[in-house]
Batch of 2 targets.
Target 1
Amino acid sequence: MRQHIACLLIFLCFVGCAYKNPAGTPPTPPNVQIASFSKALADALHTANQSAMILRDNGKISQKEVLDVQEYIVLVANTGKQMDAVILSSDPWGTQREKIIKMWASSGLSIVKDRISTTAGVVLDVIVNVINQILAAVGGPTI
Amino acid sequence: MSPAAIQALIALLNIAIPGGIALVKDILDLFHKYPGLTPDQFAAIVKEVTSKADATYDATIAEILADQAAHKP
């Protein structure tokens, strides 16, 4: 599991560096940035689920804790899919941006996360980090 | 660079570099190498990346459902 988390952290560093805009190069369009974050989020969800199952199989967390984590992962995955649909739409970026902020704000993530134990919640840290990068990119409040 | 060429390049990158994570970084690098991409070409790349993201979301949800079915009390 540590290997998975380490890989994700390294990846986040890569993504963070990729978004720096060196002098003389045009900025990456915002919907392209969000698409990239969405792929990062999808990878983070997949790894988090794998990590939760490994923790359970090694007796570190209970099945109930895994179910709570998986509920959170499914919620984020469905919100991520909605976000992808928004950035593929013909709406102007301003409208897309507002929709993305609203969908994360109304996703109920904090309610589900409050039910998750500290031990099981560790596997969700990277997910929260990526969601906050998305929200920062669209100028919304972080979670 | 035509949309077809971009698609081919993305496909090549995906084969050459294991994992979608590396693919995302290389797509971003692509923008810096080819700053003259048109809006249509950007749209093609957004479509490509989101389709990969959606496939991963769906795979994870399917994996969760299978796991839950295998661990029913």
Target 2
Amino acid sequence: LERLASPSTWAVPSARLQARVRGAFIVVPGAGLVLGAFASLSDPRLAFLAVAVIFGWSQLAGA
Amino acid sequence: VAGARTKWIRSVVGYTAAGVATSALLGAGFGLLGAALLPPDPGTGRILIVLAVAALALARESILRFVPLPQLARQTEGLWVKRWGGTAAPILWGLDLGLTFSTWLTFSGAWVLAVLAVLLGSPAFGAGLFVAYWLGRALSVWIAPLLMETATDTPGLLASMDSERRFLRWAHVAGLVVVVLVLGSLGLNGSMDHG
């Protein structure tokens, strides 16, 4: 996605779209952290897998 | 519209599957490297090394943002879509980005995963770590259509993602805090197998 991003092509997003993106940026890693916390009770390696998902998510799809 | 949807799904599935393949190879390679170079039992010393690396990463992402990451200053090749077409290009992008370290890194967590995979010396766990990383990374492509109001919303979506980027950093910092806490707990217990 970042590869497509260029300031010359950016539009002003609607407030609704902005809110959706913000929600996704909060909910996805939040869910990962909660799941990871529960999973780590049975095996700490599962917590690392959950954190790996969050790390990948925060990198986003492009580069 | 149905044809476009099918094409989109085929592209994203190809992109994701290709990234899974190279991510698994990368993570397994890190695990194999550790298994080849290190004694089989990962003791407290190795846990503390990963803990130190994770603490450094946490410092970098929270207060030392000016510290550069070791990385290849490279983007994946956007022109592949012109050279290889819309079916093959997503697969090539997936293969490339799935290698994780072949393109720009925004944050330092991937290095923590690499050190963890090497020091635990398990190819299967290493593969799992980097496949999980890749699936998290590819997830944004999967959910992008759910966020957009119209099919032409891509520029607005990109602008929104850029303006909300601070939440990505906070998520990364939260992940690093979890790693530090879990490793600290394991260091006190002296084992990965407390569960």
